[in-house]
Specification:
It is a single chain. The protein is α+β, with helices and mostly antiparallel strands and 420 residues long. It has two domains: 104 residues, Sandwich (Immunoglobulin-like); 280 residues, Metallo-dependent phosphatases (Purple Acid Phosphatase, chain A, domain 2, 4-Layer Sandwich). The chain is built from six helices and 24 strands. The strands form five sheets. Strands 11-10-9-21-22-23-24 form a seven-stranded mixed beta sheet. A hairpin with an 8-residue loop joins strand 7 and strand 8. Helix 5 packs parallel to helix 6. Bound molecules: fe (ii) ion. Fe (ii) ion binds next to loops. The site of fe (ii) ion has 6 residues, from loops.
Length: 420
């Protein structure tokens, strides 16, 4: 969380029912086996606390509760002609937790506590990992996207975290759209930690949506550049390094592009994790010829091939595509090199797909979510349609001293083509 307003002191101690905490969300920290970040907001500038305890089957006793005072920041949200809105965002990081353990927390104050909410910390390096990946949410969020996150949750209620590939909303700074995003996710966002990378719809030129740093508390381990704070970062989740880079800012600012590239080289070189996944909004390879991103490939692709990034998860194209560049490895003749690339979409704004040689599976006019499971040297990937049908599947297997083996498991169902 990035503070641009007042912090801590000077708040009224009178808390009314209008100050029930809302937009409660968990975010992954840099080290999610020991900590989790919680962010929420209230209508007025009131003091807030977070209480947490070990999970219990009976009511949480007062003596078992640990208390953290929230960091608070009052912000005036400005969005074009919409009347300015003043709200107070709060955050707290729960630290010194045990790996693979369940806890309860609530946020608020004396008369306006939230419900107690359960969460689980990341486990040990060798434990399995599962997470959900959503492409662009963006449009008709409450009306037509809420069912996708709810289907994802009912399909895999025990996932470790959620990942959003940018364009969570459509109009930069739109309070109404963020309200819909939180309403759609509701307790899912409050109980499963998430990480997100921004898309072009979170930006107005180089101005990041004023909700982003206020309502999310994301790791601040990116490049030393304010413009990239909480948009460029990494999370080490057990034996997986998840890296977020800010594709839109790289486009807008040559300096940000250089800083990001240098930082990415460092975090790829230093990691000792078995698995590495790069997340960004713009695809390296697109689902339509006229949306190609040559510059991104020229800038970043040599790095991700050099350091053996396993997957690249993206959005932006409002269609589905998954494949691996069909290029022979320079160091392993006869083997295909490079990561598996995915473009996906979860919201109802949908574009067509055209035949692109990189794609092994493609789909149009369909909303998706993806479930990715890692168990030691094997990664399983499934793309589900909004109604819960498996549309695409593969395994990726680590082989000592060789490139990853890709085992296709594409279901025997017709491709959903849509060329508009
Ligand atoms: Fe986009």
């Amino acid at each position: 969380m990035f503070f641009i307003g007042i912090c801590g002191t000077g708040f009224s101690q009178t808390v009314g029912n209008g100050n029930v905490p809302e937009h409660i969300i968990l975010n992954l920290t840099e080290n999610p086996s020991e900590s989790v970040a919680v962010t929420w907001r209230t209508k007025d500038a009131v003091a807030q606390k977070l209480q947490w305890a070990e999970v219990t089957d009976s009511p949480v006793l007062a003596n078992d509760r640990q208390v953290i005072a929230a960091n608070s920041s009052t912000i005036t949200y400005i969005d074009g002609d919409v009347p300015p809105l003043m709200l107070t965002n709060h955050s707290a990081v729960i630290r010194d937790l045990e790996p693979g353990s369940r806890y309860l927390y609530r946020v608020g104050a004396e008369t306006t506590w939230s419900e107690w909410i359960e969460f689980e910390t990341a486990g040990l390096a060798s434990d399995p990992i599962t997470f959900i990946y959503f492409g662009d949410v963006q449009a008709n969020i409450k009306s037509q996207w809420s069912r996708v996150i709810r289907k994802a949750f009912s399909t895999a209620p025990d996932v470790d975290f959620l990942y959003y590939a940018g364009d969570l909303i459509n109009h930069t700074h739109s309070e109404e759209e963020w309200k819909q995003w939180f309403e759609a996710g509701s307790f899912i966002h409050a109980s499963i930690p998430s990480m997100m990378t921004p898309g072009n719809h979170e930006y107005d030129s180089t101005a990041l949506d004023n909700h982003w740093r206020a309502q999310f508390t994301l790791p601040e381990n990116g490049p030393d550049m304010d413009l990239l704070s909480e948009t460029v970062y990494y999370v080490d989740y057990q034996d997986l390094r998840m890296i977020s880079i800010d594709a839109d800012m790289m486009d807008e600012s040559p300096e940000a592009a250089v800083e990001t590239r240098n930082w990415l080289a460092k975090v790829l070189e230093e990691t000792n994790k078995t698995w590495t996944i790069l997340t960004l909004h713009y695809p390296f390879y697109s689902t339509k010829a006229n949306r190609d991103n040559v510059e991104l490939r020229e800038n970043i692709q040599p790095l991700i091939e050099k350091y053996g990034v396993d997957m690249v998860l993206t959005g932006h194209d409002h269609a589905y595509g998954r494949g691996r560049e069909k290029v022979e490895s320079m160091t392993r003749p006869g083997e295909i090199s490079g990561p598996v690339y995915v473009v996906s979409v979860s919201g109802p704004k949908l574009y067509g797909v055209s035949d692109q040689s990189w794609m092994s599976r493609k789909g149009g006019n369909t909303q998706f979510f993806q479930l990715i499971s890692i168990n030691q040297n094997k990664l399983n990937y499934k793309a589900y349609t909004a109604s819960g049908e498996i549309y695409d599947e593969f395994d990726l297997v680590k082989r000592k001293g060789r490139t990853n083996k890709l085992i296709e498991k594409i279901p025997d169902t017709p491709e959903r083509l849509y060329t508009r």
